[in-house]
Design a protein that fits this description.
The chain has 196 residues and is of the alpha+beta class. It is 27% helix and 25% strand. The longest helix is centred in the first third of the chain and has 26 residues, at 2-27.
């Protein structure tokens, strides 16, 4: 009797192993707990078809990732998608605006890529004093002038395709990483930039 049960268990195990190997060969990947195909279900109106490609990460959000995001991770959504990106590109001829907390935090670096040199002239014009405004910290930072170097900004005629920058003094580090800041240069006003 025991031999009969042992043979039945061995057959079941062998069939399961053959099925698993067949699945692995069919899908061309190693098995994992997340790679088991879902059973086919009838499609209801308004739902995607069973063969529509939906990645597991978009179909089922990872609860731990959600927790990490809400607890202050460094992830920030793209603030210059859509209309804002189009606005800065068409009106001011610039893209890729970024604000970085550099070194020990004593300097905040604002950089941008020029798309149209004529439209971007204001950003490099010496007659305009750039300001970085942080409403959260209640401060206004300026570009310092060093004795032998001059202003810590580029003021050459902007050329399309090149990156330009300016550095704001953050003495005492009132502006922190994650703060939302505005950069004002003459009529140019970039709002809601996140300090990285």
């Amino acid at each position: 009797m025991q031999n009969h049960h042992a043979r039945r268990n061995a057959k079941s195990t062998l069939l399961a192993a053959v099925f698993l190997v067949t699945c692995v060969r069919a899908y061309g990947q190693t098995p994992s707990t997340n790679s088991t195909p879902a059973p086919a279900t009838a499609q209801t109106p308004g739902e995607p078809a069973a063969n529509d490609s939906i990645s597991p990460t978009t179909a089922t959000p990872n609860p731990s990732a959600k927790t990490a995001t809400t607890k202050g991770s460094n992830y920030q959504p793209d603030r210059f998608a859509g209309r804002a990106q189009t606005y800065y590109a068409t009106v001011w001829g610039v893209a890729s605006l970024s604000v970085k907390w550099t070194g020990s935090g004593e300097v905040i670096r604002f950089s941008y890529r020029v798309l149209d040199g004529e439209k971007a002239k204001t950003l490099n014009d010496k007659k305009y004093e750039p300001e970085l405004l942080d409403a959260q910290a209640h401060v206004k930072l300026v570009v310092p002038s060093l004795e032998k170097v001059g202003k810590l900004r580029q003021s050459s005629t902007p050329e399309a395709g090149k990156m330009y920058w300016m550095a704001f003094s953050n003495k005492g580090r009132p502006v922190k990483k994650g703060d939302h800041v505005d950069v004002v240069i003459g009529q140019f006003h970039a709002q809601g930039l996140v300090v990285d």
